[in-house]
Amino acid sequence: MRRSLAGLTVAVLIAGLAVRCMKPSPGVNGLTIAGTATFTHKGVVVQLTATAALDSGAPEDVTTKTTWTTSDATIVAVSSTGAITTVGNGTATITGNYSGKSATLAIVVTLKADVALSSYLERRCNPKRAAIAITLTENSGDVGFTVSSLSVSFVLFGASKAFKSFSAAELAAMFGSTHFTAGQSKVLFYETPYPGGVETEDSNAIIDVSLTDDLGHAVTLTRNDTFDHDGC
Fold it and tell me: With the C-alpha atoms ordered 219, 223, 228, 231, is the resulting torsion angle positive or negative?
């Protein structure tokens, strides 16, 4: 009889453990996605997170359990673990799916050419001339641009002594092309005498450049360069 009771007790314990092991997991009430959503460069990698709202009241990080997709991989790619990589200009939607729930996050990538204008001004003698090297550089590495106009005015004691507006053909010849690829730098060199053999030593040069990047953004740059070097 004692053996039968002992066996019954063990059976009850095992059944209790089985019931506890079969207890259903908390239900998922919703899913949210969080992370950086706006970018200005290609190749940026950011980890998104997915959080499930459970009916138990305790949220759970389910990032690695979520299925991730992107609406446009040419704008932003997403890995199986929720890491996104910016690829191109525009807006794409990242979607996460977990346990029958889904959430989205709009990713906006706004690319623009980052163009720097620099120059080096000097005077030259025999004969007297002003010489300038003008450098345009695309710094972002994301978007190229095309120069539409470039002019330089040489000023002496507040009075313009020489002015040059370069034609499209001249710009193409001097730069090799009016188009700059992303990350490219080119130099234009120009020199000129002042009418009447006027001394150029205390000159400054005012440079104006207009350009449009490959995504249609218009940019105007101006630089007032002071005398850098005496080449006499």
Answer: positive
Task: Please report the DSSP string for 175-220 in residue order.
Answer: HS-SEE-TT-EEEEEEEEPPGGG---TTEEEEEEEEEEETTS-EEE
| Strand-pair partners of 210 | 149, 220
Q: Let me know if residue 97 belongs to a domain.
A: yes
**Greater model confidence, 132 or 197:** 132
Give the tokens for residue 11.
């059976």
Residues whose CB falls within 8 Å of the CB of residue 24, separated by 6 or more in sequence, listed in order: none
Both 226 and 195 in one domain: the answer is yes
CATH code of the domain covering residue 105 = 2.60.40.1080
- 118 touches 124 (CB < 8 A): no
Q: What is the mean pLDDT of residues 76-95?
A: 98
Band (pLDDT 50/70/90 cuts) for residue 87 is very high
Domain coverage including residue 74? 26-109
- Coil vs helix vs strand at 122: strand
pTM comes to 0.81
